[in-house]
Amino acid sequence: MEAVTQLVSQASSFLWNVVLILLLCGTGIYYTIRLRFIQVRKFPEGWKLVFGHMKNGGGDGGEKGQMTPFQSVATAIAAQVGTGNLTGAATALISGGPGAIFWMWLSAFFGMSTIYAEAVLAQEYRTVEHGEVTGGPVYYI
Question: Model's pTM, two decimal places?
Answer without folding.
Answer: 0.70
